[in-house]
Amino acid sequence: MKRLFCYVLVGLVLVSLVLGGCAQKPTKVRVATDATWPPFEYVNEQTKAIEGFDIDLLKAIAEKEGLEIEFINVGFDPLLAGIAQCQYDAAISSITITEERKQEMLFSDPYFEAGQIVTVRKDNTDIKSKDNLAGKVAGAQIGTTGAMEVQKITGATLRTYDDIGLAYQDLMNGQIDAVVADNPLALGYVGKNPDKLKTAGAVFTEENYGIAVCETNPELLAKINRGLKAVKDAGLIEQLSQKWLAGQ
Predict the structure, then answer these.
(1) Rounded Cα distance, 96 and 169, in Å
(2) The pLDDT value given to residue 41
(3) Which domains does the chain have, with CATH numbers?
(4) Which among 67, 111, 131 is positioned nearest to 209, based on CA atoms?
(5) How far is CA 17 from its chain centroid?
(6) Which residues of the chain have pLDDT under 50?
(7) Where would I find the H helices in 93-196?
(8) pLDDT at position 47, please?
(9) Exposed end of the chain (fewer CB within 10 Å): N or C?
(10) Exposed e or buried b for every residue in 20-48, given b needs 16+ CB within 10 A?
(11) CB-based contacts of 224: which residues, under 8 Å, 6+ apart?
(12) Residue among 67, 75, 4 at smallest CA distance from 37
């Protein structure tokens, strides 16, 4: 009987160790991002790693909450469709929180304020703001709020791009008249090409970025929001702004 009791006791100890090990294993989260949007997400040409403001932010959240992150680089339009269909657990990609998008996915608390701005060639004298885009061709990335804003302008022609970098290239080459995009991104391109590009007018929308989550996974959303609050309280947003946006 004593031997049987010992076997049972050893068995219970082993089961508890296995279950304890399973409980400590990080939850793996598939996160979609469109790494063509510096300085928030882009591929480092030297290391081939995905880097940026958003990437650092989500890694910090994951560390706080014990989440294992797998980043998946995908175009912005299929990213939105994929998260709406729960092909991915979450997405971080300078995604503006909108009422339309909230019908198809969950959103974290906001973590960054941005807005749309017009970029033109340095020698352009016709376009001084979005109000001068009638009769012009404006480029924007497909599926973005920039594209949505161009569509609202009577007389403006929208040309969409899978990669926003191609829109700025076409602008510099004189193939389109303007680009409409988020101001941090636009300022980054202007900063790298000050002899070729300039912004026209002020930021004309007020937008908040959020982390998108599959709508059937409110538990993950709760963890992300908890981690986001913790890193915000620790001053990480200010640190990331200094690291990635200073000088723009």
Answers:
(1) 24
(2) 97
(3) 27-113+209-244 (3.40.190.10), 116-205 (3.40.190.10)
(4) 111
(5) 39
(6) 1-23
(7) 99-102, 145-152, 164-172, 183-192
(8) 95
(9) N
(10) eeeeeeeeebebbbbbbbbbbbbeeeeee
(11) 61, 65, 90, 108, 211, 213
(12) 75
Tokens in use for 33? 């991002």
Rounded CA-CA distance 146/30 in Å is: 26
> Which tens digits make up the pLDDT trace of 12-48?
444 444 444 444 556 789 999 999 999 999 999 999 9
| pLDDT, position 247 | 65
Distance CA 30, CA 90 (A): 6
CA 69 to chain centre: 15
pTM of the model: 0.84
Helices then strands, each counted (H, E), the chain: 9, 15
Predicted pLDDT at 22: 45
- The DSSP H or E segment spanning 30 is strand 27-33
